[in-house]
Amino acid sequence: MHSKIPTSVPTLEPIFRALTGLYLVLTPDLVIVDATDALLQQTHVKRDEIIGQHVFHIFPNNPDNPQVDSEGSVHQSLQHVLVHKEPHNLEMLRYDIPTENGFEERYWNTTTIPIMNEFGEVQYLVHEVRDITDKVLIDRVHQLRQEQLNLLTNATKAVAWEYDIVNNRMTWGEGLQEVLGYTPEEMGPGGESWDSRVHPDDFEEVQRSIQQALASKQSTWKGEYRFQKADGSYAYILDQGYTAYDSKGNPIRTIGSIIDITQNRDTQEALRESDARFRHLLEVLPHMAWTASPKGKVLFFNDNWYSYTGMRPGQTDGWISAVHPEDSAMVLTSWHNAVASGSSFEIEYRIRHHIDGSYRWFLDRGLPMRDSDGNITLWIGTFTDIDDQKNQGDYREDDRLESILRLAPVHLCMLHGPDHVCQYVTPGVYKLYGNRNYIGRSARELWPELESLGFFDLLHEVYTKGRTVYINEFRTQIDDELNGKLRDAYINFKYQPLFDSTSCVEGIIISAIEVTSLVRARQRAEALAKGES
């Protein structure tokens, strides 16, 4: 007897939910439509609690780990799919999962594909995630063990250790006796022997630091303290460790290494004295002065800066708010280009005086300091007041700047406030969007046709999250001669938040550069390679 083969189309909902993979179905507005049972189980949520909710409301960032912007990475990936209507993959993403006891550290590989309707519009997003937490943690352990091996190979005074937290069992490497003078038997098997040998004046701070790292589920810890050697003397040591946690977030094992840095203490003290002398030199300069990290983050302003701008002494974030709004986009672009290329930085712009609100012209010069290998270790710069010369006509920067902006390949647009009101555009923007009355109008007034592409959601995301977003190789049409004759082009866009003196976002800088020739060259190369195969 044969069973009858069904001829009707089955309801796909139970089939989808029973899939073994971890899947979410989202609307273009990122509202959850459905999820597989496997995903619900892995992420500790219930179906009736998440359907109809925004995905980032259900899966927010881990507030205990603010340096990891998981939500931003996923949002950028989803926006890529919506804009380009093509799948997008994130190879490895940390995205912690909320539980009853806080957040659980998890790592994922994600793929999002668009589901199109008959009009070629994105109707749904299918978001697949694969849990790779175990692989990532195992790779970390292997990496740390390799780093330990390299450390022990290169260091003359180092010892490796491993602590089984669950069983209170300490294991020491072969360098223990050479570095500290003890045998493993003399140290004992438990962690108590370590406690008793930390200098009494350092013990409380070291313990506090370790407990704080464990409470916040940090994977790495580092500390410097004094440790009693077998001969009764104390050595200054650098102790570094990596902690592994179980699936419930409980610490289970720590492995690390100890380096005797006693001989380096004099060198460190000399470096601190040198740094103090350097800062004193910057303070006595008659000009405003600054320093920045190799990556461009401002580290220091001298007192002259704070006296002139009125910023809170010691504050370094939000310095761009003291710059004239018409100059800020140009300043940021020039500074970022200098940091990227490692070349000297020189630019003239206006800075506001906090007492009367007036602006004076300054020449800002910055030079990179390099080590013996040519790597940048610090940026140093000064501001020279050139306002009198500018007013006397010795400088003709406006005409020169306009010429540069007309010929520059990068097009800039600066938007201000939550309504994204346009304050500044370069001439190249007219080639992209035509002759519109840009200044003083909101983004929605200027570009209503971009709403369907998620443009205003993107602006809202950059403004509210303070996060830079990139959209590369966006296909559009531009009017080079402003005569109505359009041509196809590919543009790389960058949306960057502009911060005020309180480190709050006050606007957005949009930069666009055409990459048509690069895209077409790559396409030709791919076509040739395909033909040869």
TrEMBL record:
- According to its UniProt record, which reaction does this protein catalyse? ATP + protein L-histidine = ADP + protein N-phospho-L-histidine
Against InterPro entries, the record matches this protein to: PAC, PAS, PAS-assoc_C, PAS-like_dom_sf, PAS_4, PAS_fold_3, Sensor_kinase/Photoreceptor
GO MF, one term, reads: protein histidine kinase activity
> Which positions fall inside the PAS domain?
145-217, 274-342
For whether the record's keyword set contains Repeat, the answer is no
Quote the PROSITE patterns the UniProt record gives.
Answer: PAC, PAS
PAC domain boundaries: 221-273, 345-398
Pfam families per record: PAS_3, PAS_4
The protein's name in its UniProt record? histidine kinase
Instruction: Tell me its EC number(s), please.
Output: 2.7.13.3
NCBIfam families found in the cross-reference section: sensory_box (TIGR00229)
The opening ranks of the lineage are: Bacteria, Pseudomonadati, Bacteroidota, Cytophagia, Cytophagales
Instruction: List UniProt keywords, sorted A-Z.
Output: Kinase, Phosphoprotein, Transferase
